[in-house]
Write a structure and sequence with these properties.
The chain contains 4 helices and no strands. The chain is mainly α.
Length: about 70
């Protein structure tokens, strides 16, 4: 068996990752990522509040936005 038959150029894992990424994007249709800066102090305050409520930061912020007036 020659070496050419065993080896190929490129990254074989790249196609699998791309397919998984596309599949995960299809599952999350209609969602948007929100990203903003927060001081470490405020982040800690928010995280502690979330834990005390038994929720994640995402849960808290989503609930807040849902309650905003139209």
């Amino acid at each position: 068996m020659s070496k050419n038959a065993m080896l190929s150029a490129g990254r074989p894992s790249a196609e699998k990752k791309k397919a998984a990424t596309l599949a995960s994007l299809a599952d999350e249709a209609g969602t948007k990522r929100v990203n903003f800066q927060l001081s470490a102090e405020l982040h800690t305050k928010l995280k502690i509040y979330a834990v005390r409520q038994g929720k994640t930061i995402t849960d808290l912020l989503t609930e807040y936005v849902e309650r905003l007036p139209e």
